[in-house]
Amino acid sequence: MADVYGERIGQGLSDEEWLRHAGQQGWAVLMKDAKVRHRPAQRLAIETYAVHAFVVTNANLTGAAQAERLISNLNRIARFAEHIQARTSVACTATA
Fold first, then answer.
1. Model's pTM, two decimal places?
2. What is the reported pLDDT for 17?
């Protein structure tokens, strides 16, 4: 987010705002908030703005472990994003 909005502005954006922007740009997003499925406003933003959302569901992974798994699977994620319907969130499950 800081790369797009700058650190100060990015930290102040609501999830709905950045999800809207991501959907309008056609970006796939990587999230680590597994509770997104229980948050109506975020789910509505994902559906309304046709966001391809990939969610890391193992909150026990360190940041480095999450990054390693996402990087090592980036090609698979990109291929999957091309084939799934927009307005979809996908759980990316990994074990510690």
1. 0.71
2. 92
